[in-house]
Queue: 2 jobs
Job 1
Amino acid sequence: MTDLTLSQPRQGLPAWAGRLPVALLLAVAFGVVPFVGDQYLFDAILVPFLALSLAGVGLNLLTGYAGQVSLGSAAFMAVGAFASYNFILRIEGLPLLAGLALGGVTAAAVGLVFGLPSLRLKGFYLAVSTLAAQFFVQWALTKFDWFSNGNASGVITAPPLTVLGISFDSSVGRYLFSLIVVALLTLAAWRLTRSEIGRSFIAVRDRDVAASSLGISVLRVKLLAFAVSSFIVGVAGALWAFAYLRTVEPAGFDLDRSFQILFIVIIGGLASIRGAFLGAGFIVIFPLILSRLGQALLGDTFDSGVLENAQKIVVGGLIIAFLIAEPAGLSALVARLTRRNLN
Amino acid sequence: MTGTPLLVVDDIEVVYQQAILALRGLSLSVDAGQAVTLLGANGAGKSTALKAVSNLLRAERGRVTRGRVLFEGQDIGRLDTADLVEAGVIQVLEGRHCFPQLTVEENLISGAVSRRLRGRALRAALDRVYDLFPRLVPKRGINAGYTSGGEQQMLAIGRALMARPRLIALDEPSMGLAPLVVEEIFDILHRLRDEEGISLLIAEQNAAVALRHADHAYIVENGRAVVDGPAADIAARPDVRDLYFGLSASSERTPHAPGAPVLTESP
């Protein structure tokens, strides 16, 4: 966790040079990918990648920057998805984006409640208490079918993705819709990490007593971290449900998903916005590449079940290898490699 | 150096986790513009006394169970830390506790949180700190975790100054630092007292340095202030010299174990 925040611009390069790669990436994502990508790329790779990246960004604010471990991310995603669904369903004429935002606000409120134990608990103990969110939310969404508009198994179907009369209901459309939402929220998160709030997150994470000795309200900072993080994770959940899966049930937001997002953050790099995207890329895209590679190379000799298990072993091994090479995550690895190339 | 007492600690008792009695009726006072030092062995209750003043006991599940802490005649025992900082009392913690992942300058800025400084006012406050601690200037863009122990202590003091306090409580500012750096830090504390009129309450193990720089001294034993007086008088007392400087007037001796009798015959 070295170059987490506010790292100085590299000497000799103007400040904008550091942002150039991001600008280029955005230009390609908006200007090139929509024209060259195919349906498989959008539906199976890029949209889930974007949704999980955003969830990673959200969790990273809480865990990476503010130092509060959470195993409840999937629950907050579920709250975001189901709340958005209900707002759009029940309020006539509510614009889609307002529905998403309200879903995020609801997730923030729920996050705030489940963040209350953080005022007393730290580390593993806090992680265990956030499990409560995981189990409670899943239980409530299954138990009360009001949340899913009377569906007995809690399944909800995405509303049409229409913003200002423009329909985003195609593969490219869903991709662009996700990209816009993710880009805007990531920008906001990045700005936040560089503000006074971001500094107090880090202060509370690193030295909570010192932070409180300066008059930083540790209580308020922790709750704010839970709220902001849950907002972003909630919107990510709504994207996951509306833009990726289209129909989703509470079981889709189980503990495995929470772990997945936590691993995205850890593998990508704690307290790094870029890390969330690298981690999500690793978790989403890597197994797909491996699967294709395995099919192409060994598909004739082994059956698909064997290949699938072999993939998991390879992915697991690579995670260990990456983390040994750079304990601070892929983000730090990339930073090291680019620095070496520049020098 | 006498004036109206700025801070009065009146017969306080502190209990940790509802079980450990750390202070049993400690009283002390700090006059405006005075540097007061608390001396005592490990575990005597110096740090607890400071934390009771700056209301940081809650973080360690401690509580003031008796007595009062008055700042300018006002009971500050119920104020939370943020309000206390705004009122003008701030603590520099033992072991410095800079934020290692923030740069030196960001650490300083975080000290101004209670004043909500922006723009030029913030710049002016930063410049004042850099003026007092020129050693921090070349390090301003570096993560605090990569600076030396002395620089971190300066940073911790500078960070506290950003809140524009009237009383700074310092817990062991000399801890783990080279003698020359300790001198430098105490000189700056001196300047703070003389030039800005900031009152200081300093808990120290290093009795020699502390007594040289303080106006008044208290000796804390077993959660009580047992002796107090002008620093120069305390420094001259043979029993204190013996206990806290580790040598008596006549012969060298090994340092005392805490709690051991004050005066024993050498073998």
Job 2
Amino acid sequence: MAIRLVDLGTVSYLRSQTVYHGVAYARTENTPDTILLMNPKEPYVCVGFHQEVEKEVDTDFCRKQGIPVLRREVGGGAVLLDSDQMFTQWVMSPDRLPWNLNKRFQIYARPLVQTYHAFGIPAEFRPINDIHVSGKKIGGTGAAAIGQAEVMVGSFLFDFNTELMARVLKVPSEKFRDKVFQSLQEYMTTMKKELQTVPDREEVKAIYIRECEKALGEEIVEGALTPEELAAIEALDEKFQSDEWLYQKSGLLREGVKIHQDVWVTESMLKARGGLVRAMARLHNDRIEDVSLSGDFTFHPHRLFSDLEKALLNVRLDPDAIRERVAQFYEDHEVQTPGVEVEDWVTVLMSLQQKVE
Amino acid sequence: MADTQEIRGCVIRTDLYYSVDDHTWVQVNDDGTVNIGMTDVAQNMAGPLLHAKTKSVGTMRKKGKPVATVESAKWVGPVKSPISGEIVAVNEEIEKDATIINRSPYRQGWIVKMKPTNLDEELKGLLTGDAAVEAYRQKIESEDIKGCEHVEGFEA
């Protein structure tokens, strides 16, 4: 059976989530595998299935700004979605896609990557489920089983408001927010950034569909939603807007903010004998790429405090490597930190990693 | 110790009943209740689990309806009940640490206990023993699954 393409153009923020869920829930054995395309009309925050909204999103800010929040039945973290993103959602029979999720992500990412290539953007699939351009993320993808369907979600990032993305998240401090913002600036890219212009949606769509036909080995035919699917979508419109659905409690909490597959912003604290020690850092693979230290301990002479942060740059997240760097710093500079020992620095910095695992 | 068979490193316990397409197993207990969980193949496919959320005790479930949802870095999905019945207990430990399912999918990582309503009939639709092993062999080979890898402390 040919794959059905349903391009809904611009839809409300709510429908940009409820349509693919509804198509999945309404799926029967006679439903064709479906590719949905759409852009949300207005910006909104979308949290992962098992996230707790109040812990992840600055809901006061969102309320004041009129930015809605929705929960999806796909995993991952809170993201800002808006009209500069064209969603590419697959709702398929489990038989269409490989059981092996790594292969499934490869198949799903291929048409996205190939379309970027057609525009001269050197995108590549970065397992498990990112798409990168020269180490910067241009999109993430997700997979879920919803109803009797297997669902894959992702998007084309025409442009992205990194400032608003950093603003809508609930973070421990404004300094942390700044680090998230800087990291998003540094490690995310868009079609606009790569091309200095925003490409035409119809052109992107045409190439993408051609590439999907190649990746899936099946003809793709434009179609429409059925009355049964529309009824399922309408029912979900109500459910997704209910407080019961949005504010449900969950045990899933990650203290760090994932920028992309290899980059996290996170912080950790330690109550040392000499006082509280706090480390806030950007981790890139297994290294501390950037770190800010603070706390209420004594550090003498204070003018050398930022030198300790510099000394830790690019250190491997390994107790021995950190110990060596810190010990060397103490030896070179003769600083005094009563009640905060070399091992305390090792502990607080190593616990950064636990926050993102 | 229950009998086990391995297919490309993926462990199948021959004393359990399986819904191969839904990646779930059923263990029939002496008191007539059943334990339900995810298979070794399923936990391998999903990868390290970040979270598991079960339905509440007292929930009635028809065969095929979810008794829990699980999330890994790769995938979110329901654990579909292979049988109909009432959830009489949930494994609270997996809600605190879902990786228990990765370490012990058939024992410590059980997901819910149910009081079945149509067990004899529904067991006929599940596979056990050599038939289950054979079905998994075909599935694993047809999908060209490279093999299961187990975390330290894994138990079958």
